[in-house]
Design brief:
By secondary structure, this protein is an alpha+beta fold. 54% of the residues lie in helices and 15% in strands. The protein has 6 helices and 4 strands; from the N terminus they run H-H-H-E-E-E-H-E-H-H. It has a 4-stranded mixed sheet, sandwiched between helices. A hairpin with a 3-residue loop joins strand 2 and strand 3. Helix 3 runs parallel beside helix 5. The longest helix has 31 residues. The two termini are 14 Å apart. The relative contact order is 0.13.
Length: 188
């Protein structure tokens, strides 16, 4: 599985959650069957172990269900985003999730450049741009600088926003790294 913020992270996390969920379910089922077949009762230690294994099963099931709506950039979209980043001399964070009490929002691609956070909103999410900006503004709570937060609908808009910005100075590059760290802490 790739690291958080890299392309393919969400897909790998989805697979990991599914695998762990299936392993836990298989363990629970095996324990209950062993208890019923060999001891003809449910009142055994095997059933207690199965009940305890229900906790990680539920955790991974919920994690998988939260990720099921997320669609990362296509390979073509990823190549286009990398081209945009190379032209501007910046790096992009991919597969970003931001959690809040209201739910989770996914951003297939986020650019952090010269005290600006520009998030690409996933197509098909029933979210207004204003709400998507509110989720992403959580990044302002960490670093000492308050970055400007913008949400766009397409890679063309992302490129247009990046083209409007001046290149960052040396001290701003360090501040952008702090913003990037904070961004990766916002989701799962």
């Amino acid at each position: 599985m790739s690291e958080k913020g890299n392309y393919g992270y969400a897909r790998g996390l989805k697979r990991k959650r599914m695998l762990l969920m299936l392993v836990c379910f298989a363990f629970i089922l095996t324990d209950v069957i062993i208890s019923l077949v060999f001891f003809q009762t449910r009142k055994t230690l095997f059933v207690v172990l199965a009940a305890v294994m229900a906790i990680p099963f539920a955790k991974n099931l919920i994690g998988y269900l939260m990720l099921i709506k997320y669609e990362p950039l296509t390979k073509e979209g990823h190549a286009e985003a990398e081209k945009i980043a190379e032209e501007r001399g910046t790096t992009l964070a991919y597969d970003i999730s931001v959690t809040a009490s209201e739910g989770v929002l996914f951003y297939p691609c986020v650019a952090i450049y010269n005290n600006n956070v520009i998030g690409l909103l996933q197509a098909g999410q029933n979210t207004k741009k204003k709400d998507a900006v509110t989720y992403l503004k959580k990044v302002q709570e960490g670093p000492p600088t308050k970055p400007r937060v913008v949400v766009v609908d397409s890679l063309k808009e992302l490129k247009r926003e990046l083209d409007r910005l001046n290149p960052p100075k040396e001290d701003q590059i360090k501040a952008d790294l702090l913003i990037a760290e904070r961004l990766l802490e916002l989701g799962y």
